[in-house]
Design goal:
Layout: H1 2-13, H2 21-38, H3 56-61, H4 78-83, H5 102-113, H6 153-163, H7 174-186, H8 192-200, H9 206-216, H10 218-232, H11 250-261, H12 266-279, H13 284-289, H14 306-326, H15 345-353, E1 358-361, H16 377-409, H17 419-426, H18 434-454, E2 463-466, E3 493-495, E4 503-506, H19 513-518, H20 533-542, H21 549-562, H22 583-595, H23 600-608, H24 622-628, E5 641-642, H25 645-655, H26 674-677, E6 682-683, E7 686-687, H27 697-700, H28 716-720, H29 739-747, H30 749-765, H31 769-781, H32 787-806, E8 819-823, E9 830-834, H33 853-866, H34 869-872, E10 873-874
Antiparallel strand pairs: 1-2, 3-4, 5-10, 6-7, 8-9
Helix pairs in contact: 1-2, 2-5, 7-8, 7-9, 10-11, 12-20, 16-18, 21-22, 21-23, 30-31, 30-33, 31-32, 31-33, 32-33
């Protein structure tokens, strides 16, 4: 075992040949374990039992029980006895789950038997070394050309193909190409008329004009805004057990969409999200942009420990900035020096110190002309009606208690009961029956939820500030400062093992030392003042000399066009993230990105105008290509892929003629699976109000990006098609194939409703069955049916007409009440509660019972098309 551990330590610490085996064991295993598990109680922040383990001399001196270590004699050392659990003071405290591993204990023994040498700390730089290949992303961008001296995407891609002896696939046909670009840039299929116009345009600039039209579409920002929201973990609720609403978070979502539509320079996009309130406090967009720093899951309640929830946010913000903008897993250095990348723990906490003076704010910011709050007037009325109805029910309970008090005291008028007595009585379970009291409490909590939901229509921003904003604080630590002038940011210390109870060395705000070490970018001068920390960090990240920033973003753009990035993990350009398939191309694109003013649309143009993008998704020598390049990383052909969850849902609505054109504003509530919608959701020790879809189609049927994003209740249709988990940064959508996807596409109420709507639309637009079948194919696939497809579809339609004539649909069912069970916090008893009924003014979807047998039969054909690979995949 000892030999293995010494070997492991040597591997862990790199080329430290000058160290003895015991010193390497200390550097690789013992030292990190001491910092993580011991120093929080014995040396940093406090010295329990008078034992200081920060130095060898102090450990030899020991504490109140004697020397902690006896060099050369591990068995006689109190430290070994403690970590082996052979004493009454077994360490570390916390039971079996906190004990050191057998390998770590063996390393401690080997180290003490070897003389217990205390190697120098390497806090500023990890002890291990890195090969050039490991730190490629930290090196400056290289001015690159392809092997033949050309500078274009095709020059780099084709050079790699020639190296493998591969030829590229032929160009895709024009309808396929336009459909591909429409999905990539807008997330929606092109209309048949758009395809016809493109096919008919034989001018040399036809493709360039088509690309420019798609880039100019307002749908572009919705499509690419969704990609960014995946990365930042956007949601309209906080997550955790209560999953409270973030009523004004939608303004950040709309800011992102506007930024992409306007082609806002990416370096400015970075600065605004990290420090917009510092850099341009009078700019509403810039302040709203700082919602980025609060996008992750976070919750603070009356039962929370303030220091814990504050640290949770600091860790979240630090990791989010590192992943989103720098493409590094800096969060791995929270507990120990990063095991694979040159990021010491000290750097992690120096970066975290940048945010130590950042507080939550909810300032009043007037609505912008581009923000859509008018369309949601019906939703606002809906919440107000819920408030009024809940208040009326609470008033009934109050009156019941008032009458009972008056009767018990023999008073003629219940109104004579003093208000103070009423207030006390409403908190006393004796005045209401147990079931009544539980319902009363539930309505009180629902009233709180409804009132908070109503504030989504108020001109407030979900933002941050440097120090608290008087009158605009938004929970958390700022509440203890009655005046902003009294504010002092907390000191940031290195936390041993990431444990808040083990504070160590104090650190000043700073940036990642590895970037300075390997690139040409100097370290940023982060001020110690309350204001200015984040703006200094933002300038450092957005600096054109930062080797990571442009690489990360162009890699993301490339991935969303080709299904895979030039590097495998867009959130991780470190050692474990994989090496780039085309490193010269990546650097060339990043350099062009910067030279082009950080224009995202300019990168789109370069990609879409390339031959690599315009290739067919099939290859005449497929077997040869597969054998030489199984993952198609060299792009001999265009990689087909399944449409993402939101694209699939929006496309179904689009071809059915049901997609709402309303954009922006507070999130609506789409139609979702009824069984999921009616599941009880717990919050605040009680139940959340039942999920109800928005009554108006123009809100309910908007694009998925405008749906209310509830962390605790994800749309099951989106979930089953690998929609993102909003608790984690989603750098790349996965694409699984499971049976529940087929069930959702074929059997769900949503798909059946949309198939009916699709058939009804086509029936209005075309006069004959044959024309209707052709129109179905044109809308769904962007092409007409082949003769075999047309004949088969018509035959199926005819047979289904006969079936539907003989089997009329059932009548409209009676609405079922939603009954949820409450378990009392006080007694543990279970009570049933009926949730509010859906609103009476609900604008229902067209149903099978509403149309003729011919339309129902055409809907069967439509449903088959919507379930086909050609509809679901992008080729």
């Amino acid at each position: 075992m000892k030999g293995f551990l010494v070997g492991f330590a040597a591997l862990y610490t790199g080329s430290l040949t000058a160290q003895t085996p015991a010193e390497r064991t200390f550097s690789g295993i013992v030292g990190p374990a001491l910092r993580k598990q011991c120093l929080g109680c014995h040396g940093e922040g406090q010295i329990l039992a008078k034992l200081d383990l920060r130095t060898r001399e102090a450990a030899l001196r020991g504490g109140s029980r004697g020397p902690a270590i006896v060099p050369g004699k591990a068995g006689e050392s109190l430290l070994i006895q403690a970590i082996e659990g052979k004493t009454a003071f077994a360490m570390p405290p916390g039971g079996e789950s906190k004990r050191l591993s057998a390998e770590e204990i063996a390393a401690f023994r080997a180290w003490i038997d070897g003389g217990a040498p205390w190697a120098e700390s390497r806090a500023e730089s990890p002890a291990w070394t890195y090969s050039e290949a490991d730190v490629w992303a930290l090196r400056p961008l290289r001015a690159t050309r392809s092997a033949d001296g050309a500078t274009s995407i095709d020059a780099f891609v084709d050079a790699k193909l020639r190296e493998r002896g591969l030829s590229p696939a032929p160009p895709a046909d024009r309808p396929t190409l336009l459909r591909r670009a429409a999905f990539d840039l807008t997330g929606l299929p092109p209309a048949p008329e758009e395809i016809d116009a493109f096919v008919a345009d034989r001018s040399p600039s036809a493709w360039e004009k088509a690309v420019e039209r798609l880039l100019a579409s307002p749908r572009y920002g919705e499509r690419w805004g969704r990609h960014w929201l995946d990365v930042v973990r956007y949601a309209d609720s906080s997550g955790y057990s209560n999953d409270f609403e973030r009523p004004n978070a939608w303004r950040y979502r709309d800011y992102v969409i506007r930024s992409f539509n306007a082609d806002k320079p990416y370096d400015r996009f970075i600065r605004e999200q990290i420090a917009g309130d510092e850099l341009d406090p009078s700019n509403a967009d810039a302040v709203i942009a700082t919602g980025f720093l609060r996008a992750g899951p976070w919750e603070h309640t009356a039962m929370s420990v303030e220091a814990v929830t504050r640290q949770m946010w600091l860790d979240d913000a630090t990791s989010a900035v590192g992943a989103a903008f720098l493409g590094l897993t800096v969060g791995c250095a929270r507990c120990h020096d990063h095991k694979f990348d040159p990021i010491p723990t000290k750097d992690y906490y120096r970066l975290q110190a940048v945010f130590a003076s950042t507080e939550f704010a909810r300032p009043k910011i007037p609505f912008l002309a581009a923000e859509n709050v008018v369309a949601s007037a019906g939703e606002r009325k809906r919440w107000q009606d819920s408030i009024d109805r809940t208040q009326a029910r609470l008033a009934e309970f109050r009156q019941t208690v008032r009458v009972r008090l008056a009767k018990r005291r023999g008073l003629a008028s219940p109104e004579s009961i003093p208000e103070a007595e009423m207030q006390a009585a409403m908190q006393d379970t004796k005045e209401l029956e147990p079931e009544e009291f539980e319902e009363y409490k539930l309505h009180q909590k629902h009233l709180q939820v409804y009132r908070e939901s109503l504030t989504r229509f108020d001109p407030l921003a979900f933002a941050v500030s440097s120090g608290p904003l008087d009158g605009a604080t938004d929970g958390g630590p700022t509440l203890k400062y009655p005046k902003a002038a009294d504010y002092k940011p907390a000191e940031v210390r290195i936390l041993a093992g990431g444990n808040l109870q083990a504070p160590g060395e104090s650190v000043a705000p700073g940036v990642l030392s590895a970037v300075t070490r390997y690139s040409e970018l100097p370290a940023a001068a982060i001020p110690a003042s309350v204001a200015g920390r984040r703006s200094a960090l933002a300038d450092w990240i957005a600096d054109s000399r930062n080797p990571l920033t442009a690489r990360v973003m162009v890699n993301r753009i490339w991935q969303y066009h080709f299904g895979a990035g030039l590097t495998p993990d867009p959130n991780n350009l470190g050692k474990t993230g994989g090496k780039p398939s085309h490193p010269e191309l990546l650097d060339w694109l990043a350099s062009e990105f910067i030279a082009g003013g950080w224009s995202v649309k300019s990168v789109h143009r370069k990609i879409l105008l390339s031959n690599a993008y315009r290739r067919s998704s099939s290859h005449p020598e497929y077997r040869k290509v597969r054998d030489a390049d199984p993952s198609n990383s060299l792009l001999a052909y265009f990689p087909p892929r399944r449409a993402e969850a939101e694209v699939l849902r929006d496309s179904v609505l689009f071809v059915a003629g049901e997609l709402s054109g309303e954009s922006g504003g507070p999130g609506g509530y789409p139609q979702i699976n009824e069984d999921v919608a009616n599941q009880p959701r717990h919050a605040m020790g009680s139940l959340q109000p039942a999920y109800r879809p928005s009554p108006e189609k123009r809100i309910r049927n908007r694009r998925a990006i405008y749906a209310f994003q509830q962390r605790g209740l994800i749309d099951p249709f989106l979930d089953v098609f690998n929609g993102p988990n909003p608790d984690f940064s989603c750098a790349r959508r996965e694409s699984s194939t499971v049976a529940t996807q087929a069930f959702s596409l074929m059997n769900s109420e949503f798909m059946h409703d949309m198939a009916i709507a699709f058939a009804a639309r086509v029936s209005k637009e075309s006069a004959t069955p044959a024309a209707r079948v052709r129109r179905l194919f044109r809308l769904a696939y962007g092409r007409g049916p082949t003769p075999e497809e047309a004949a088969g579809a018509l035959a199926h339609w005819e047979s289904m007409v006969l079936w539907h004539r003989q089997n009329p649909p059932p009548p409209k069912p009676e609405p079922k009440p939603v009954i949820h069970t409450i378990t009392s916090e006080l007694t543990g008893e279970r009570f049933q509660f009926k949730q509010w009924d859906p609103p009476q003014d609900y604008e229902a979807n067209l149903k099978a019972r509403d149309v003729a047998p011919e339309t129902r039969a055409l809907a069967d054909v439509a449903l088959a098309l919507l379930n086909s690979n050609e509809f679901v995949y992008v080729y």
